[in-house]
Amino acid sequence: MRIDVVTIFPEYLQALDVSLIGKARREGLLDIRIHDLRDHTSDRHRTVDDTPYGGGAGMVMKPEPWALALEAIAASAADADDASGARPVLLVPTPSGTLFRQSVAQELAGADHLVVACGRYEGIDERLFEWAADLFEVRLVSLGDYVLNGGEVAALAMIEAVGRLVPGVVGNPESLVEESHSDGLLEYPVYTKPSSWRDRDVPEILLSGDHGRIAAWRHDQQLARTRSRRPDLLPPESVESTETAGPTT
Ligand code: SAM
After folding, report:
1. Best exposed site among 122, 162, 173, 180 by fewest CB in 10 Å?
2. Which segments carry the region annotation Disordered (predicted)?
């Protein structure tokens, strides 16, 4: 998979050299290219922002440097993308986007080419997204209901969430199967050695060797944890019936 990231802070993306994503880059599983938006400006100050029309606080990113940067990426990718017939996906991190969930990461893991546009200031001139739809499948996505200073942290999170689903990036693919959000539930609690630690014991059942009972216990734990911490992930009927029935242990 190829991933291009456009930012005014290329150094922010150095974390992509580390750990499993860094290894996947070195092994050629992920072709990640970082671009400095300011390379697509033409003035002495390498300006990427200007004051907002209509007034208000803050600055807005100018569309032209973005268009030039995205055109250059689209042109460099044209041959490869033509082969698959698919347009690259342009991911635009923004708190006003749709929620980036595990299901979105799973969907994007099947793409050949992602481009991430890291906004700063009050965001990017809105006209860019309409323009970009000719070259890309544009998706405005939010990491969550809070506001960051820029899109770089969101890009790192999204690239890691998508990248680890690309075959070969995580050594043991089974470890991706039972994770939180893979089946709509949170993961069960996990424990390691020693079996007794500071007067706290690992649940007896995990030492039993009875795989059927362990699987059933883990599923119960997933449900109980999801009901208590994230009832919004469950269908309303299931949460109501639990409230009547009392907590699952
Ligand atoms: N004025 C914007 C608003 O209220 O929607 C917030 C702009 S924010 C200060 C600057 C940049 O940070 C955004 O353009 C986006 O790239 C990034 N950002 C901030 N919060 C984010 C979030 N929850 N998810 C994804 N990106 C976010």
Report:
1. 173
2. 220-249
